[in-house]
Amino acid sequence: MTPQEEAQARARRAAQAARTLAYLDTGTKNRALLAMAEALLARQGEILAANTQDLAAAREAQYSQAFIDRLLLNDKRMAEMAQALREVAALPDPVGTVIGGTRRPNGLQLLKVRVPLGVIGMIYESRPNVTVDAAGLCLKAGNAVVLRGGKEANRSNIALATVIAQAATASGVPQGAIELIESTDRAAVMELMRLTQYVDCLIPRGGAGLIKSVLEHAQVPVIETGVGNCHVYVDESADLEMATEIVFNAKCQRPGICNALETLLVHQAVADRFLPLVAARLEAAGVELRGDERTCELLPQAKAATEEDWATEYLALILAVAVVDDLDAAVEHIARWGTKHSEAIVTSDYAQAQRFAARVDAAAVYVNASTRFTDGGQFGMGGEIGISTQKLHARGPMGLEELTSYKYVVYGEGQVRT
Amino acid sequence: MTPQEEAQARARRAAQAARTLAYLDTGTKNRALLAMAEALLARQGEILAANTQDLAAAREAQYSQAFIDRLLLNDKRMAEMAQALREVAALPDPVGTVIGGTRRPNGLQLLKVRVPLGVIGMIYESRPNVTVDAAGLCLKAGNAVVLRGGKEANRSNIALATVIAQAATASGVPQGAIELIESTDRAAVMELMRLTQYVDCLIPRGGAGLIKSVLEHAQVPVIETGVGNCHVYVDESADLEMATEIVFNAKCQRPGICNALETLLVHQAVADRFLPLVAARLEAAGVELRGDERTCELLPQAKAATEEDWATEYLALILAVAVVDDLDAAVEHIARWGTKHSEAIVTSDYAQAQRFAARVDAAAVYVNASTRFTDGGQFGMGGEIGISTQKLHARGPMGLEELTSYKYVVYGEGQVRT
Question: Is the pLDDT of residue A126 over 80?
Answer without folding.
Answer: no
